Amino acid sequence: MKTIGVLTSGGDAPGMNAAIRAVVRTAIYNECKVYGIRRGFDGLINAKLEEMTLSSVADIIHRGGTMLQTARSDEFMTEAGRKKALNVLNVFNVDGLIVIGGDGSMTGASKLNDLGIPCIGVPGTIDNDLEYTDFTIGFDTAINTVVDAISKIRDTSSSHGRVNIVEVMGRRCGDIALYCGLAGGAESIVLPEMPHDIDKICRKIIRGKNRGKLHSLILLAEGAGSAVEMAKIIEEKTGMETRATILGHIQRGGSPTASDRILASHLAARAVELLLEGKNNRAVGIKCNEMVDIDITEALSMEKKLDMATYKLADILSI
Ligand code: F6P
């Protein structure tokens, strides 16, 4: 293993820069050449490679986004697109590739691996939707951003005596809503993984109001419905003024938390080590505070499970 490529793909996540930095510096420490590939698999197809030096990754550990930029590539989904990507890697003599991204990016990594280029996946997504790892890079920063927003919404919500539905990202996974619901003291948490009963939610709101609560907060995962629609229904059923807040892409930005920087540094450095050990098609992650690596195909076949203990606790505490 002499030359390593690194790219970020799919939705960006805070901590991706810390991961790129760790790849580049671990590779150079081990006397490898590193190419940074701009704009994910799309950039790879279009040969957007540049050699990275120690100083290319200086002063990025604290920055959100990804200095390599990212994209979702339709062309790479095709066999012809992947062949073009393989040609570019061969022309630049790249012996191994590190892909930082979510499940779509891992799928891409595995497909390239099948074509003969050893690939390692590093989980970078705010969604925390990969079962094989307890946490993905970016999730901790995203939930801190959401909790901060919730505190601000509480201020205005209690001043007006309103109900507020906060819709958060996560695609089909409810982890952002679940963790932020618990940390933000939400009355109800609505997730794609669990059925919800709108009348039960309304009863909680009314009971709260009757015992003097100034406001109610509901955390809604985007995969479970629309905050605007839910606000209309709740206003109608409870007679309480209800507002919807869709937090959107603010959840993907900002300086990564210390936890995300540390997780990114460990996982990305491990990814380089795996390539140096001659491994391929592995996804790195963290389970019970231990670093793990697992076959990417197996990692992607695992169904993401809801953390039922946290869900139950949030329900009890919001009685
Ligand atoms: O996967 C990360 C994520 O932010 C999801 O939570 C969200 O559904 C999606 O990406 C939004 O994608 P885009 O930035 O392409 O609109």
The largest sheet, given as strand count, sense and whether it forms a barrel, is: 7 strands, mixed
β-sheet strand percentage: 15-25%
CATH topology title of the largest domain: Rossmann fold
Count of discrete alpha- or pi-helical segments spanning 4 or more residues: 11
Heteromolecules bound: 6-O-phosphono-beta-D-fructofuranose
pLDDT < 50 stretches = none
Quote the distance from N terminus to C terminus.
Answer: 57 Å
Report the C-alpha radius of gyration, rounded: 21 Å
Spatial order of the strands forming the largest sheet: 3-2-1-4-5-10-11
The secondary structure category is alpha/beta
| Anisotropy-based shape | elongated
| SSE order | EHEHEHEHEHEHEHEHEHEEHH
CATH class of the largest domain reads Alpha Beta
Instruction: Give the helix proportion (percent range).
Output: 40-55%
CATH architecture of the largest domain: 3-Layer(aba) Sandwich
Total strands: 11
How would you state the average pLDDT, rounded?
Answer: 97
